Amino acid sequence: MRIKAKLKGDKANIKVLIKHDMESGRRKDEAGNVVPAKFVQTITAHVGETQVFEANIGPGVSKNPFLELNLTSRAAGDAVVFKWVDSTGDTLEETVTL
Amino acid sequence: MSLTRRGMLKRIIAGSAVVMVPFGAFAEWMESAFKADSYSAALAAMGAEGAVPSDKISLVAPEIAENGAVVPVQVSSTLDDIESISLFVEKNPNPMTAEFKMFPGLEPDFKVRVRMGETSKVIAVVKAGGKAYTAESEVKVTIGGCGG
Predict the structure, then answer these.
(1) B89 and A CB contact within 8 Å
(2) Which of A1, A43, B14, B138 has the largest CB neighbor count within 10 A?
(3) Domain CATH code at residue B57
(4) Can you tell me the ipTM of this complex?
């Protein structure tokens, strides 16, 4: 996961790029075998105990999903913890500090 | 069936629970909506039937996408009491593409890149104040993004 955050006043613009193939379960490989579905389903963000973001996505989102969001009432030093979970249960967490 | 006070209370509680569910903010991937194979079925699955067009939703998508595999979409809204913002690609095999839940301190303004198999409408559905609103934009796709 690559996360870029820009804090302007109390507003944080955050760009998230997740490295993931987003296999829909409809694609066939070169040998003609169906590639099993494996795609990111949920992306959340928390600051401390407080949830500040949640996106649920399907395989209609492009390979290597890119998201951009904006948080308000934030301050320099806030740690925003992003986490994704895919359809097979794989998960990854990464923190960006504003 | 006798209408006792306790029975009535139970029914009221059960009734309000049913009303709460479609608009509740719970962390769950809505399988029935994401796996629906038509826009109308997905809309029904997420409890947003009868969504009405609104000019308080801004949906920005390219008029022409040369590569359907990566189509940038931005959605924002000035509606009050937004609960969620969802995106659909009408002609994709599973139209429901993304759902953003709202939280205090999160702006209703998101960007995401979507796949489009063919020329189609991109539709935003915003749930706000217990109602559902829509905006749409047509995107012409020259090379589809859903095949191998």
Answers:
(1) yes
(2) A43
(3) 2.60.40.2470
(4) 0.95
